[in-house]
Amino acid sequence: MKNQWNVDHNKFTQADIKKVIDTDVLVVGAGNAGMMAAAAAAEKHAKVMIVEKEASINLLRLGLGGVGTNAQKRAGLTINKHDLVEYLAAFAQHNVDEGLIYHWANHSAEAVNWVEDNILKPHGAHLRSEPDAMVTSSAYEGFPTENDPTIDDQTFASYGDWFQEKIAELGVDLQFNTALVDLVKTDDMVTGAVVKNVQTGEYLQINAPKGVILCTGGYSANKDLLKQWNPLALKKNVYNDSPRNNGAGITSALNVGAIKDEEPAECIFDRGLVPVGTKTDEMYVQTATYQDWLWLGSHPLLKVNLRGERFANESVPYQFIVNAASKQPGYQYAMIWDDNYGEYAKQFHTLGCARVGFPGYMASAEKLEADTQQYVDKGLVVKADTIEELAEKLHLPVDALKKTVARNNELVKANIDKDFGKEAYRLTPVDKKPYYGCILGGRILCTSDGLRVNKKMEVMNAAYDPIKHLYAAGNDSGGFFFGSYPDRVPGLAASHAQTFGRLAGQQAAEN
Ligand SMILES: Cc1cc2nc3c(=O)[nH]c(=O)nc-3n(C[C@H](O)[C@H](O)[C@H](O)COP(=O)(O)OP(=O)(O)OC[C@H]3O[C@@H](n4cnc5c(N)ncnc54)[C@H](O)[C@@H]3O)c2cc1C
After folding, report:
1. Signal sequence: where (predicted)?
2. DSSP track, 251-297
3. Domain residue spans in the chain?
4. In CATH, what number does 266-444 get?
5. For 469-490, how does the pLDDT look when each residue is reduced to its tens digit (9 = 90+)?
6. Ligand 1 residue neighbourhood (C-beta within 6 Å)
7. Could you tell me the distance, in angstroms and rounded to a whole number, from the CA of residue 268 to the centre of ligand 1?
8. Residue 138 pLDDT > 80, yes or no?
């Protein structure tokens, strides 16, 4: 029996608890926040245990944001912290705890530098900043916050295994296949948790007198919670790329009197390929393997609604086009392009992971074309010699699409987007056959509304007082994001998780 949150709480009796384990600090979830929290607490000589419900740690992210990191200093980059914080707060219409954003900005470099010095350097790797990422236009503003782990400055270096070695060296006890079931609260203090071995079904109690740190990564895998807290996300998104995150961290804290953000926030990418004719209500594919993920989707090519009409400036952060499509019939949109798209990609200067060339994942225009071709072969991207044929294959009204393409080409010739204001260098024609098209929807990467925390990362109760010895970090913690994710501060999500994980670990160890 599940509760109203569709999470397995309160399903055991005391008699079911077969074993009691003592530690100082218990971290729940071995992802971006949890691994940092564990390392930080262990560095302060606490005895630390991490419980992770899957059989491996989660992917430690490659684009790491930060302000004033050593990598940025080496690249001669400075970021004005006040401008950045104001940008983030304004982006959220100030529906955030601005002090927390400053707290991140003040501590992010420490966390990023710690990863570089302790995890990367011993393995011959370092961080490289994205020096030309500062872009300022009214629609497309970017800050050069991203730091990328690399050995050769051409490709990413994955560092999860190295991190796992490091926490083992620090004496952290990492238990896989072990899921949080419930927090244990005695009087006014959290003293540990009940967890379940998901392979044996056995319940264990873990006593953690210095604190429990919740780092389970939000709730994007839990459709029942999405229905309650963010129903529009189920309409906008056709994929969930974080299938591990079912909300257990957040709901376990609500069970002991915590409060959470009252409004939803999420990070969405615009790369979800939808088979033509599928309704968004019918599709929410949970995948950890980038299934049917079209990198090209984040390029500012012509995008039209399901009536074949252009509906927004395509030169915007990833999530915006998905948001804009949610105000159109069917919640999805089509992208239309022509055979010169490899050339256009070079002129677009897309940032972060959408870049062609490092730190993007598409090393060259040729690689982008090959990536796209696999979806032509799979039938998710359609190809045609005429716009009429393309419209038919995409189930779009033929006359409307022909009119939209003709208008697009007219604007390209005039070198000005009189309809939606896209920058001239991002206006591209659709006039060289074969023509291409696909239907796209959103991919939710994570939810980011979470438990309200103070600057010590302590989870707060309804009186805004801390629930003693209960901490949250990463997407289990809130007060930081509102609505959409600010994509133009690349690496913010992972950095928020790692920076606040580190602070929570240090804090708990000091109890
Ligand atoms: C495809 C993709 C690309 C991304 N790219 C970037 C990027 O380049 N830069 C960036 O800044 N952000 C990126 N993000 C977002 C970033 O990964 C997240 O914001 C970040 O991982 C959040 O960290 P977290 O520790 O809160 O959660 P996670 O890293 O998701 O870790 C949560 C962990 O908790 C475990 N868990 C869940 N429930 C339980 C339970 N009941 N008991 C025990 N363990 C549990 C999960 O299995 C998981 O291992 C990306 C996300 C995705 C999906």
Report:
1. none
2. HHHHHTTB-B-SS-EEEEEEEEEE-TT--GGG--EE-SS-TTB-GGG
3. 266-444
4. 3.90.700.10
5. 999 999 999 999 999 999 889 9
6. 28-34, 51-54, 58, 61-63, 65, 179-180, 215-217, 241-242, 244-246, 248, 267, 353, 445-446, 474-475, 491-495, 497
7. 14
8. no
